[in-house]
């Protein structure tokens, strides 16, 4: 075995991340083999991240690894699913050194421990391009109880799980070399697994990665209805509120916060009471599309959020 080569990397650095899960077969097999779990459905999600697109090329490797797990954990949270295991694909840029890989693995281990998330398998390749990562996450949800995007109906309340716009503001800070709580949050989002019991009460939900307007719109589209969003009701952090107060055009600034993405909060439709942890910001309606209101007036919107070319 070449020291520092692909199999050395798998055995020495990746195997401990299985946390002893028997399904991983010690990362020595062609595939992981998962037993079924009676009474539960398996939610499966996959998100990729590319240096320069999803994270800054000089972001610390341990934080990049943790963000990869967390953006996927955010999708599981939005389905009401309890994390079960992860599969990881990594394309290392040619010449990535062992020390970098060790730091990356330290991040995986840290969040593997925090979220009790074993690594069950994956793939490692090299690339002439930028660092490219993908994780597939599995989560259990009681049979038939997964919260889907398609469950909203006209009359349901639209609510969000927390502040909107911090991720975009944090990216802006990080790009300008400004460190602080928002730059930290951009690098290390906090998936709302703490709200699983509230999320399971939702008629529909999606996590907010592309932007509030885009992801609320994804729920509406999947549900065959429209959504009205009242920007003045959007929860903001104190930092975002201070930024907003300094902007010349309040409506355009609110729109920026609601379309910037990287929030990793959950948008949900509730029928009846809005549970603990959520703030009502609008409603689902008959029709189609995303209708935005600010300062009591309809706002024309030309872009709902992030979209890859
Ligand atoms: N390359 C792909 N192959 C298969 N399905 C995909 C692909 N890319 C996206 N999807 C599907 O499109 C839907 C929307 O994806 P996406 O916008 O990435 O969701 P999310 O924002 O929750 O990560 C999901 O059902 C996802 O599985
Ligand atoms: C360096 C950098 N530039 C720009 C962004 C903004 N950004 C890139 S992708 C994206 C949307 C989320 O990524 P995507 O791959 O669409 O995730 P998904 O919706 O599939 O979860 C955002 C807001 C960023 N996160 N980092
Ligand atoms: Mg995705
Ligand atoms: Mg996602
Ligand atoms: Mg999502």
UniProtKB/TrEMBL annotation:
Function: Catalyzes the ATP-dependent phosphorylation of thiamine-monophosphate (TMP) to form thiamine-pyrophosphate (TPP), the active form of vitamin B1.
Note: Reaction mechanism of ThiL seems to utilize a direct, inline transfer of the gamma-phosphate of ATP to TMP rather than a phosphorylated enzyme intermediate.
Gene Ontology biological process: thiamine biosynthetic process; thiamine diphosphate biosynthetic process
Gene: thiL
HAMAP family: TMP_kinase
Naturally occurring in which organism (per UniProt): Caulobacter mirabilis
Residues holding Mg(2+) 1: 47, 123
Enzyme class, UniProt record, top EC level: transferase
Lineage: Bacteria, Pseudomonadati, Pseudomonadota, Alphaproteobacteria, Caulobacterales
Residues bound to Mg(2+) 2: 47, 75
Protein name, per record: Thiamine-monophosphate kinase
Domain PurM-like C-terminal: 153-293
């Amino acid at each position: 075995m070449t020291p520092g080569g692909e199999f050395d990397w798998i055995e020495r650095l990746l195997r401990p991340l299985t946390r002893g899960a028997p399904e991983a077969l010690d990362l020595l097999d062609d595939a992981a083999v998962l037993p079924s779990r009676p009474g539960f459905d398996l939610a499966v999600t996959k998100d990729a991240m590319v240096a320069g697109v999803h994270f800054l090329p000089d972001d610390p490797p341990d934080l990049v690894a943790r963000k990869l797990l967390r953006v996927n954990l955010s999708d599981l949270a939005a389905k009401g699913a309890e994390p079960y295991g992860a599969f990881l694909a990594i394309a290392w840029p040619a010449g990535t050194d062992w020390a970098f890989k060790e730091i990356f693995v330290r991040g995986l281990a840290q969040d593997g421990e925090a979220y009790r998330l074993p690594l069950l398998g994956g793939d490692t390749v090299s690339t002439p391009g930028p660092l490219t990562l993908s994780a597939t996450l599995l989560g259990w949800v009681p049979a038939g109880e997964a919260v889907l995007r398609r469950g909203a109906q006209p009359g349901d309340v639209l609510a969000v799980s927390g502040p909107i716009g911090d991720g975009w503001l944090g990216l802006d800070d990080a790009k300008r070399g400004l460190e602080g709580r928002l730059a930290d949050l951009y690098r290390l989002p906090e998936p709302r697994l703490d709200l699983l019991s509230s999320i399971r009460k939702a008629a529909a939900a999606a996590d907010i990665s592309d932007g509030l307007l885009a992801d609320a719109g994804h729920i509406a589209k999947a549900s065959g209805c429209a959504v009205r969003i009242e920007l003045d009701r959007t929860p903001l952090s104190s930092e975002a509120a201070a930024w907003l107060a300094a902007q010349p055009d309040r409506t355009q600034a609110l729109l920026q916060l609601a379309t910037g993405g990287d929030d990793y909060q959950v948008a949900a439709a509730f029928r009846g009471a809005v549970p603990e942890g959520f703030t009502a910001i609008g409603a689902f309606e008959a029709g189609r599309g995303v209708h935005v209101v600010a300062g009591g007036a309809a706002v024309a919107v030309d872009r709902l959020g992030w979209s890859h070319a």
